[in-house]
Design a protein that fits this description.
Blueprint (H helix, E strand, L loop, with lengths): L1 E9 L3 H12 L1 H8 L1 E9 L15 E3 L2 H5 L6 E4 L7 H10 L3 E4 L2 H18 L3 E2 L10 H8 L5 E7 L2 H13 L3 H11 L7 H4 L2 H15 L9 E2 L7 H9 L2 E12 L2 E12 L11 E8 L3 E8 L3 H17 L31 E11 L4 H11 L4 E6 L8 E8 L2 E2 H12 L4 E10 L4
Helix pairs in contact: 1-12, 2-12, 4-5, 5-10, 7-8
Length: 437
Amino acid sequence: MMQPTRIGIVGLGTVGAGTVNVLRRNGDEIARRAGREVHVCSAAVRDPGKLRLCEIAGIELVTDPLEVANDSRVDIVLELMGGEEPARSVVLTAIANGKHVVTANKALIAVHGNEIFHAAQEYGVTVAFEAAVAGGISIIKAIREGLAGNRIESMAGIINGTSNYILSGMRDEGCGFSEKLADAQAMGYAEADPTFDIEGVDAAHKLTILGAIAFGIPLQFDNVYTEGISALALDDIMYAEELGFRIKHLGIAKRTHVGIELRVHPCLLPRNHLLSHVEGVMNAIYVKGDAVGPTLHYGAGAGAEPTASAVVADVVDVVRTLTTDPGNRVPHLAFQPNAISDLPILPAAEIESAYYLRMSAVNRPGVLADVTRILGDLNISIEAILQKGSGAQESVLPVILLTQTTVEHRIDEALRQLAELPTIENEISRIRVEALD
């Protein structure tokens, strides 16, 4: 067997410790797959005296992440610290030193990936990032390699387990958003500051990466339309169920005749769709290719060992390519660097979707006629109307509308005009409806 490959890890938190455990436990199997042994020789940590969730015997602990990136013994740097800095500096330093990099950092790749991959190409090294999206689900390899013969038409995914856990709980337990968020924090599924999860930023980072490898476009995090779940009302979740739908927080990437849609937001999905049955903290990505048709990729999207599974798989891939001509390796973003497309990302106003609208209407004759007139004048067709309430004694009644597919800017204008009606009270709820067929 060849000389062992030496690993330096930046960050021995949940994922870093899980990675060490998997490398130690499955070392013989990994060596059989990779063609050589893999040894962890150093790791950068904030506090060397802290109790670790892994065995650290034989691992030199340092406090400066750049020390790992500059360590002449290290062949592959595992960046598992998260965040943009100092992660970006560590990765670029490692690349400049001719070291391969494996990262689980979706924010780093989504925001700085173009720069990082350009540097990797210049220095002839590989940057692997399977663990950056959907934890233990090998979705990057599936799209980049397994579906390489396809023209990817669309994908939609539940790619943030925290949001999915909250929505599942709201529906099943009949509780409000704040109550279920507190439960998610108590269970360890949500951070003390859950903003990235509940406002869609985490999912947008992941969708940026998925969109780039699916369509061969540059990473463009700033162009992803992003909407979270914090404004969702329990009423809407229950009305959606009554109408035969389920509300899920989705990342959607879609090829259209005028450009690419990249958007993260709550959606009404038909209750019989496969994604509607993904519950709790699980992740799933539905990918449609022209040759293969629809495929579903399901599994644990986070956690120490599911994420470590993806990290170690990347390590094995990198070890296998150590002697490969850099020009013949799998491209970072699936397409050859000189073949990246300049397809535009569509603004939110140009998105096409059906819509769920819920409004509080004064209980008097002619109100629905005013609503339907406004929608009709804007060429928005109505699929269904549901009026709730028990009778004439109620002064205000909830009215729920489902529209047929239309362009978002028409819905924006309809909401503006509806809000001006004296018979419509409070803010109008608007949720997109996706069939994904």
